[in-house]
Design goal:
heterodimer, A: 7-stranded mixed sheet, 33 helices, 40 strands, globular, B: 441 residues, mainly alpha
């Protein structure tokens, strides 16, 4: 964090052209819009191989004359090749250098992101005023320096070339002046009836300023209604908490303290709120230092195979709709074990235990009951309120409250969001809505099919949508306002534990967008009260802080500055809700009610609507990094699919890639099927957030929209869905299509018991050869000897590091078609293997693999031009401008971590470049590689050099922890450590010497610098 | 049936039914009716007369194919190697397959002209010019691939030890650099050998030339050849030296090419058997290619009396020998993979025979090992259609051998997560087909 004065960026003049708006769009919007439709206008799709290949194969498309012409041109071109000069590019220095901006040296600013009810504390790296990389804020309790993959990728959203650039009235561009005038008039017009016909729709929020302004607006327009809706919500959890405690609360689980964890359909390591915090503490509970250490045991009951399921010691695959039955049966078994559930015990009802192995009740109950105070039951937000309420009761009965479960009050606990949307819809039908203000969100796309939001929206006389893109909803609204990105906005957030953070912008809104707060302030403060200028976000946030928080002895300005610098308000955290007692009778009453949602008839399946690990609810749809990120479990890129178990697929006669129609009543969707080993039988999981039609060039038409099948009654899963094969097939692309380790010692794992018997089990499987080297080995015992260690026991396979690496190292995306050809560029990949012989219930092993920096690197010997060579510190360096692209190094790399630029993935002037805005994301300290060049992980050599230069300047030696690689920095599980292996005190040195440490493919004698710590599973013998 | 020796370098004992000429103890290779004049006339006519219609047709096809090559290469340069099917982990696909194949083809030319010359195998004279020319063009085709397959072809000169201001030299540990030296030496020597051998013939053409332009052109290339005794003496000496230089190249070039694979860590490549196996394979494929072309030329130009059935029979026998050697190598690879106890090695070979590329493997086995065995039968050994078809099959089989070695080894190596499948694109095919145009033009 660098010290600086808070600064309000001047807003760009209204109507002024923003310099990076592309010329094509300016000159010919129609054809530009058409170009946007294509997947990759900048790469091969336009003037490209594929098109040409089609032309050659197509009848008469490529006639004799064309052939002769092409031949002649190419023959001449070959001769002239040497004569072409590269274009001259000019760089211009600052005439007046801004304060604190040193070209080539990055600044870091603290800010915060809202993410599914959690506020993720961030430090954002900025180069010459351009944010380039998002990192976690070490001081912030929600992230402790880590981030998740969505946060990592969101820097790309800032530079999204398809962001909306100006307000639109009826789909036609207009100016911000006109917009302001319109808003002033419109809002004033509602003063008369106290806002009776005014409605505001927004997402649930933790922002104190937002809540304050909403209260102010409520005071001004007491008749107006403020609705919240978000497609991936916490309503069931809140409802469950209300049943148990009479108040909506968040539960924060301490997985590090817990010995036994039971997840009830909760993907707490990936898609649930607070996953970063959860991952850190989960990994801490399993970070074994020696065989005598203890570790937690995770039981997961779920339908879809989630990241959390992949980390389970025991996993039960049942339909999501059966999880409640399981929970009740388990509660009964716990009562049998002597756990006192009070009045709840009597209302558990009688349920058949079919599909649930007896040990999953008896042994699990025994374990939970035997670990009182250290056992925790975690319900998933998909599960109904009754499961949440019962879980609260179980946690209380097991003595977990205050020990392994703590509660915090929900900030935005006014209304049940789904029901609230229903009231809005009813009001629209009743013609009670004149003006609808939609702050963010995309309800036309992401509301359930039965909401028919688009049709209803059309009947509202004035609808205003604040959105980053002219998306599905904006297209149907009478007004569209460009929304500023989170890195462009002033704001504030409270994290789950109540930590108050200021969201400070890193850059002025690139396209002059507005923020939610600014728009809400228009409602809160009337323009007629002498405040004719719209309020700026900066003032709004400061006012909130001044009003709601105690400045203390420091005084407000100091407090404000401190909050900006640290990224959080000191002393704002204690925010706990201390429950008195679980309201057993209320829970019992709820459990006694008949469960809503009928069981499906024979031949039908259950459909689970899961938040996509990559796109959540679709808001990240136009992010090329996320599109190309392999799904953590299926390794599918650029698509979502309907996951079915092998047995269900066999029953339905499906193979992967078959397009199926899922029909529930009148609601129908079509989607490609994917056979996912380990999925529950009779259940189909579909990811939300795909099949967007107005997301932008990268997101349009990718995957399948599943929202039409959702209903308000069944937001998360629905039983009784009919499956029909349409007969079509769909091409699905994966980055890894071989799922078995073939018995090779790759991602080595064992059980805790066997680890105690053979602590060096991993080295034993992969011994280093004792043969003499061909030439004397280099002595690295002096100076730095960089090394990395990856703890497979901590790694959950969440994929955040993959995106972090991509953002840090200017790694291009290549598109589905190129990934299909095996040309993805990720320097760091996460290999996912299925273990076990039963395809229906495989275990999963994950292993992040990047260049392991062999000391005896096979790639270096074979490079004919010395483009890859060893540094004195033992790094296997790439000299990109020396590389001619023989690809021999990659052939000889046993780890296959080298990536080749088969085509100009970073854009080519002749074909149309990658959008200028996307180039702004590039890290200036990393070369952008051209086509024909090999590239790979360098251990973030630019960061090593930065630290060494700083050390040289200050005279302070480089300490352990000074160099942090991008993947290490972002890892929520703290599974990656990096440092100098010559430093005996370094964490990495310690880890590399642990008994479960091993070198990947050590038997080849490559002497890799990256070591892995073998994974330990902790199965319960009684589970059989 | 002739006795077959175990080395490909020592060829066939020319024992036939015909009685040898008493003075020299050899039987005539060609019909006794042929005289020096008739042969000169027959051969020279090919260049002097108007080209036959068939020649034009063939030439137009070849030029079109060459044009296709230029288009495909131009497209490749324009876009990058991505127009081919190469991927990760199969970073080398058809490009290096073609390179090794064409280099192998070239070997027969050198073998025929140089080795057989050194061993005084007189029957070579009818085919040596032919084979040498084939070598030159095959090596040109081969050289094309390392040049164009690199990602940045305009910087391919980095592979040569060009003095530069950065004082960066090629990496002499890299087999690719050895390749550069081996192949460029081979090309230079082959070119010289061919040219030196041509000098008297060029002079003959010059002497027979009817137009001034022809006279001048052939005159310049004939380097003032007068056919004097001293010139013949020097010529014979030079030819002998070049032949002696070329001979080790037959062994060294393909050995070095095999080092590209043998010195790597890839299972299926990392094998000590590769050098002899590659040389045998090269001779095998080279003879097959000479055979194919010769049979066509024989038919087109009507030089049956020069290239006799005996020549063809002897060549077939060489193919039988080298084919058996290659078959032995295939078997030995499997044995060593099993004997080594290395699980990666074992997997690679089982995967070759039973994995996704089994079709390529069995194509290779049937074309290279089973087909040549037909030559054990005298009837088939001397049957022109049979040998034509077999020579084509062997060419295909040898191409597949390289494909199998390169692609099946790469597509499934150490970490199963990286495993993939290689599919060529139209541009792979275009470049390969185009090289035939270049070769035939």
């Amino acid at each position: 964090m660098s010290r600086r004065e808070p600064h309000q960026f001047p807003a760009p003049e209204t109507g002024a052209n923003v310099f990076w708006k592309s010329l094509e769009e300016k000159q010919d919007p129609a054809s530009f819009a058409k170009a946007k439709e294509t997947e990759f206008p900048f790469s091969l799709k336009d003037a490209n191989v594929i098109k040409h290949a089609d032309a050659v194969e197509g009848e008469g498309a490529f006639d004799r004359r064309d052939f002769i012409k092409l031949g002649a041109v190419m023959t001449a071109a070959l001769g002239l090749e040497g004569c072409i000069r590269r274009p001259v590019e000019k760089i211009v220095p600052y005439t007046r250098s801004p304060e604190n901006v040193i070209p080539g040296v990055s600044n870091h600013y603290a800010t915060v992101y809202a993410r599914r009810g959690e506020a993720v504390g961030l430090l954002v790296e900025s180069h010459e005023g351009r944010p380039t990389k998002i990192e976690g804020n070490l001081d912030h309790p929600s992230s402790k320096g880590a981030t998740d993959l969505l946060t990592q990728a969101s820097i790309m959203d800032l530079y999204d070339p398809d962001r909306s650039t100006s307000p639109k009235k009826g789909g036609v561009n207009t100016s911000f002046e006109e917009l302001d005038a319109f808003l002033a008039d419109k809002i004033k017009s509602h003063d008369a009836d106290k806002g009776a016909k005014l409605r505001v729709l927004s997402a649930p929020t933790n922002s104190p300023s937002f809540l304050r302004l909403r209260e102010l607006a409520r005071t001004r327009f007491p008749e107006a209604k403020f609705h919240t809706y978000t497609p991936v919500d916490e309503n069931n959890a809140r409802e469950g908490a209300r049943l148990a405690y009479g108040q909506a609360v968040h539960a924060i689980y301490d997985y590090a303290r817990a010995r036994v964890i039971l997840s009830l359909d909760s993907d707490f390591l990936q898609t649930e709120p607070g996953s970063i915090r959860a991952m850190r503490s989960f990994a801490d509970g399993r970070r074994l230092r020696s065989p005598s250490d203890t570790m937690s045991r995770l039981y997961v009951v779920e339908s879809t195979y989630s990241t959390t399921g992949a980390n389970a010691d025991h996993r039960l695959r049942i339909k999501s709709s059966d999880v409640e039955r399981y929970t009740r049966l388990l509660a009964k078994a716990l009562v049998a074990e002597g756990v006192n559930l009070g009045p709840v015990a009597a209302s558990l009802g009688d349920h058949p235990a079919d599909g649930i192995p007896p040990q999953w009740l008896k042994a699990v109950a025994k374990e939970l009951a035997g670990n009182r105070g250290r056992a925790v039951v975690v319900p998933g937000s998909r599960q109904p309120a009754s499961v949440h309420a019962l879980a609260h009761a179980l946690n209380a009965a097991l003595g977990g409250i205050g020990q392994v479960v703590t509660y915090t009050p929900v900030v935005d606990d006014k209304v049940d969001a789904t029901g609230d949307l229903k009231t809005l819809l009813a009001d629209i039908d009743g013609k009670k809505v004149d003006t609808l203000l939609i702050l963010g969100g995309n309800p036309v796309y992401d509301t359930p099919g039965e909401a028919k939001f688009a049709a209803r929206l059309a009947t509202v006389p004035t609808s205003v949508h604040l959105a980053s893109h002219v998306d599905e909803t904006s297209a149907k609204c009478t007004w569209h306002i460009p929304r500023a990105h989170e890195l462009e906005s002033w704001g504030d957030q409270r994290s789950l534990d109540g930590t108050w953070s200021i969201q400070q912008p890193l850059i002025a809104p690139i396209y002059g967008g507005r923020t939610d707060l600014e728009l809400l302030a228009r409602l809160a403060y009337g323009d007629d009260k002498g405040q004719d200028k719209p309020r700026a976000g900066f003032d709004l946030v400061r006012d909130t802080l001044r009003e709601k928080s105690q400045a203390g002895a420091l005084g407000f300005d100091k407090q404000w500055r401190n909050a900006l610098q640290r990224g959080l308000l000191t002393g704002s955290a204690p925010f706990a809700f201390t429950p008195t007692e679980v309201k057993g009778t209320d829970i019992a009453a709820e459990l006694a009610k008949p469960a809503p949602g009928a069981k499906g008839a024979a031949g039908t399946v259950e459909v689970v609507f899961a938040a996509c690990p990559k796109k959540l609810d679709g808001r990240y749809a136009n992010n090329p990094w996320l599109n190309e990120l392999p799904d953590p479990m299926t390794k599918i890129v650029w698509d979502n699919t309907a996951h079915v178990s092998p047995k269900t697929a066999a029953d339905l006669g499906l193979v992967s890639g078959d397009v199926i129609e899922l029909a529930h009543g009148a609601d129908k969707i079509t989607i490609a099927a994917w056979i996912q080993p380990g999925h529950a039988d009779g259940s189909v999981t579909v990811y939300l957030g795909w099949g967007r039609t107005a997301a932008g060039r990268y997101g349009n038409g990718k995957g399948f929209d599943v929202n039409p099948l959702r209903t308000f009654a069944a937001m998360h899963f629905v039983d009784g869905v009919a499956v029909r094969k349409t007969g079509d097939t769909y091409k699905i692309t994966q980055t890894q299509d071989h799922q078995s380790m073939e018995g090779r010692p790759v991602a080595i794992d064992t059980t805790l018991e066997k680890y105690k018997e053979t602590p060096n089990f991993a080295q034993f499987r992969s011994p280093t050869p004792k043969t003499l080297p061909l030439w004397p080995r280099v002595d690295y015992s002096r100076g730095f000897r960089w090394g990395m260690n990856i703890d497979l026991n901590a790694c959950t396979g969440c994929n955040a590091c993959v995106i972090a690496c991509q953002a840090e190292n200017n790694i291009p995306t290549v598109g589905k078609e190129q990934v299909g050809r095996g040309r993805e560029m990720h320097w760091l990949r996460i290999d996912r293997y299925f273990l076990g012989n039963d395809a229906a219930e495989p275990q999963v092993a994950v292993q992040p693999v990047a260049c392991v920096q062999c000391e005896e690197a096979p790639c270096e010997n074979v490079c004919p031009v010395n483009a890859t060579a060893h540094s004195p510190e033992g790094l296997n360096d790439m000299a990109y401008n020396r590389c001619i692209g023989t690809r021999y190094c990659a052939n000889n790399c046993p780890y296959k971590v080298r990536r080749f630029n088969y085509l100009e993935f970073q854009g080519e002037p002749l074909y149309g470049d990658i959008p200028e805005s996307q180039k702004m994301q590039h890290n200036p300290n990393v070369t952008v590689r051209m086509r024909g060049v090999m590239e790979k992980c360098t251990y973030c050599v630019q960061r090593i050099q930065e630290t060494k230069i700083a050390s040289k300047r200050t005279g302070k030696p480089v300490k352990d922890g000074d160099v942090v690689t991008a993947c290490q920095q972002t890892c929520p599980a703290n599974a990656i450590s990096f440092g100098d292996l010559n430093d005996p005190a370094a964490r990495v040195t310690d880890l590399a010497k642990r008994d479960r440490s091993y070198e990947l493919l050590s038997e080849l004698g490559t002497h890799p610098r990256t070591t892995y710590l073998g994974k330990i599973r902790n199965p319960n013998k009684e589970m059989g | 049936m002739a006795a077959v020796s175990s080395s490909p370098l020592v060829t066939v004992d020319p024992v036939t039914a015909k009685l040898p000429i008493a003075e020299i103890g050899e039987i005539p290779l060609i019909d006794e009716a042929e005289t020096f004049a008739s042969i000169t006339d027959r051969v020279a006519r090919v260049t002097e007369n108007k080209a036959p219609r068939n020649w034009w047709i063939a030439f137009i096809i070849a030029v079109s194919a060459t044009l296709m090559l230029f288009s495909a290469v131009g497209w490749l340069f324009w876009n990058g190697v991505g127009v081919w099917g190469n991927n990760s982990p199969v970073y080398w696909g058809w490009d290096i397959t073609n390179f090794v194949w064409w280099i192998g083809i070239g070997h027969a030319g050198t073998l025929i002209s140089a080795v057989l010359f050194l061993f005084r195998q007189k029957w070579r004279t009818s085919i040596n010019r032919f084979a040498e020319a084939m070598t030159i063009f095959a090596v040109i085709c081969a050289l094309l691939f390392p040049g164009i397959h690199v990602g940045r072809a305009w910087l391919a000169y980095y592979m040569f030890p060009v003095p530069n201001q950065m004082a960066i030299w090629p990496n002499f540990k890299s087999p690719l650099v050895w390749d550069v030296f081996a192949v460029s030496t081979y090309f230079t020597v082959s070119l010289l050998f061919w040219y030196v051998g041509l000098i008297p013939d060029l002079a003959t053409l010059r002497d027979r030339a009817k137009t001034k332009a022809r006279k001048m052109a052939y005159g310049a290339f004939a380097l003032g050849w007068r056919g004097s005794n001293r010139q013949w003496q020097n010529y014979e000496r030079a030819y002998l030296i070049l032949a002696a230089l070329s001979t080790p190249l037959v062994l060294s070039v393909h050995s070095v090419v095999s080092f590209d694979f043998a010195t790597s860590v890839v299972p299926g490549w990392h094998t000590t058997i590769f050098p002899p196996y590659f040389v045998a394979g090269a001779v095998f494929s080279g003879f097959a290619m000479v055979m194919t072309l010769m049979l066509v030329t024989r038919a087109v130009y009507g030089v049956k009396s020069i290239v006799t059935m005996q020549h063809l029979e002897l060549m077939n026998k060489i193919m039988l020998v080298t084919g058996s050697l290659v078959g032995y190598a295939y078997g030995m690879e499997f044995f060593i993979a099993w004997y080594s106890g290395n699980e990666y090695e074992m997997f690679t070979f089982i995967n070759r025979a039973t994995g996704p590329y089994a079709w390529a493997y069995w194509t290779m086995i049937s074309c290279n090992v089973i087909c040549p065995q037909l030559f054990w039968f005298k009837k088939l050994l001397t049957n022109i259609p049979v040998m034509f078809v077999l020579s084509l099959l062997i060419n295909i089989g040898m191409w597949f051998e390289r494909f199998v070695i390169i692609v099946t080894s790469l597509h499934r190596d150490f970490l199963p997560s990286s495993w993939s499948y290689f599919t060529p694109t139209i541009w792979d095919i275009g470049v390969f087909a185009g090289t035939f145009g270049l070769f035939c033009t």
